Structures are given as structure tokens and as C-alpha cells.
């Protein structure tokens, strides 16, 4: 059965890797594949508007909207020059979730510099899916995906880090962190879960104005993550950065429950969490940009840290709360 006309048009609106707009009407949404610079508010607005558009229907796993969201992230990763998983897999790790829905993680990476730390992996992540039935998930979690794409661009522009950095848009988070579970249970391509030394996760980072605080959950005293947050939070005096609290409520759980330290950036949404009012027009874009930039700087600190991050991993031990 042919795809609905609205979905066909959305695919046509995805521009080529040149970033040139393909939409003649200035009111049409467009998603530039390779923006000129990271942390561009206009680009992040466009990313959220596309992902949270009614045509994508909330990006429910296994739907056309899910496929279009996967395609958008895949094409952006390609344009940024991220390394795909393999020639056969490209950027997609296909899996079937517990509800029998065929979906995918979108994963690309930047290899570490040649050296002792290059085998270490820092995973920067955000989940791609949402609930549908009128719930479009702009803050939850188009905001996190937009931040992920900006951070990937910043890393790609800066050149190799000491460690390998993986960028992952996970599927089926809402049904129980299933994409992150698939990634850790059966790592795609040449990646190995035993090489993962840190997870930096973002979920709902577009509602700072709701409570005027962004939480860096998992930033426990004495950890490399806390050191990295403390090193950069002071550069953002307009952000109140909460530190030290634990969380097992997003994809970071599939890392910290296996002993991998984590940071989970999150802003509370008192009004529209899992509601139909979670729409693109409500996202706090100026602070989303700053949270993305802060997260990117923290991830960069971890990717280049001289600390023994591998030695801090505690295999088969739940470190979500410590």
C-alpha cells in the first residue's frame, strides 16, 4: 500500500547533504542535513519541529513516523561524516521490541586517536521514540535528539578525541529502554559493550523554564562525570545545574545497571509530560541550546580525560545510585 501523501511529501522535504533547502514555501519545515555550525538555535528548532510534527505521529516504534525519524538521524550522521557500524548495517541497529514492533537504533561514531585510550568508548545518547495518539513528544524527546545532533556536529568539527565517541539515538525507550538494552546486549558493528566506559544521556532537555533547573543526574562526588560537570557548569551562570542525584528512569539505566558510570541530563516538565501539550512551540529553545552546549563540553571532557575511566567501570554491579 503506498505511503500517505503527507508522508511522501515529508520525505521529499529532506534536503540533500549540501544543506540546500528544497522547500519553496517559506512556511514549509525543512531540516538542513549539515548545518554550518553546532548549537545553532534555528537548526535545533527545525529539528524539533520536524521530529514532533503531526505527520510523524509521535514517532511510535514500527510506524512510518518512526521510520522517517530514523531516516532523518541516519542522513544527518552521514552528512557529518560519522563512521557507520559497518558496510552492511550502515547506521542502523535493527531490532524487534517486546511488543513485536520492528524499529532501530541509529548509531554512528568517531574513532579515538591512536593510543592507549582509543578503545575506550563514551556513548552520548538520546531516545528517538515517543507515544503517539496525539502525543508528539517535542520535549520528550525530540529535544534530546536535537541536542545529540548538535553535539555530534561539534565533535565532528573538532576532530578526534582520545577515546572513541559513539552517538546513539535509541528506539523503544518508552516501553522499557529496549533500544539501549539491544545496544548493550548485542553491540552493533565492531563495537563491544565491554569497552563502554561512560554514558552521557539526554532526555527531556527542552523544559528548563518549567522549574528553572537542569539536572546532571549521576554526577556523584568523586566521579569523572562530576569533575567534568563542575569544570564547565560555571561557564553557564544562567543555568542552575543540579548535581549528585541518581536516576534509573531513562536509557542510562542499561549502562549503569551493568556498572558503567553515567550522566543523565534532564529538565522537569510539570505540565506536559506524556501529554498532548508536549508540542514544539512549548520547547525552551534558548536554554535547550545552552544545555546541549554544556552537555557537549562535558562529554568532550570525558572523551579526553586522563583519568582511568575503564578502571572505574564495575562490571555486573548496579551503579545507578552510587
Structural write-up:
The chain is of the alpha/beta class and 322 residues long. It has a single domain (31-312), classed as Aminopeptidase. The protein has ten helices and eight strands. An eight-stranded mixed beta sheet has the order 1-2-4-3-5-8-6-7, sandwiched between helices. The longest helix has 21 residues, at 138-158. Residues 1-28 have low confidence and may be disordered.
What's the total helix number? Answer: 10
Q: What portion of the residues fall into strands of 2 or more residues?
A: 5-15%
Shape label: globular
Helix/strand-derived category reads alpha/beta
The number of distinct β-strands equals: 8
- Overall structural domain count: 1
Largest sheet strand order? 1-2-4-3-5-8-6-7
Please give the CATH architecture: 3-Layer(aba) Sandwich
CATH class: Alpha Beta
Characterize the largest beta sheet: strand count, sense, and whether it forms a barrel.
8 strands, mixed
**Termini separation:** 51 Å
Task: Give the helix proportion (percent range).
Answer: 25-40%
Low-confidence stretches: 1-28
Radius of gyration: 18 Å
CATH topology: Aminopeptidase
Order of H and E elements: HHHEEEHEHEHEHEHEHH
